[in-house]
Amino acid sequence: MSLINVLNEDIKKAMKAKDKPTLAVLRMLKSAIQNEQINKGQPLTADEELTVLAREMKQRKDSLESFTQAGRDDLVEQVKAEIVVVETYMPKQLTETELSTILSEVIQQVGATSMKDFGKVMGAAMPKVKGKADGNQVQSLVKQLLKTT
């Protein structure tokens, strides 16, 4: 079942339950996916849907950080609730240990020996962990692993 169909079903459930905050987030996700389909001109693959979800998650995490710094506790709670809803559609996130193992393998595969190879490692690593790990977390772990090699 495509993500759009899953979202449609969950939108119906949220409407019946009169869960307005969840309903708003689900509608935003559906809209983002439909906009991407329109831009592409054809239905999205599962990987492309995941890219849209990851982008939506990143936007919310950035907003959370901004609102926290600005002391907007009312908006912080709202964004945290949105993040919880978006997470239900994301694949299970990798633990730091799992991510570290994958990145170590990638470093060996590309033959990285120093920070000069950072771009090569990131280029090879991101497709493997797409949607399963935050890009900032991947970046900091790659830097840490390259410093120790």
From TrEMBL:
Keyword Transferase: yes
A molecular function GO annotation: carbon-nitrogen ligase activity, with glutamine as amido-N-donor
Superkingdom in the source lineage: Bacteria
Keyword line: Transferase
SUPFAM superfamilies linked to this entry: GatB/YqeY motif
Protein name listed in UniProt: Aspartyl-tRNA amidotransferase
Pfam families per UniProt: YqeY
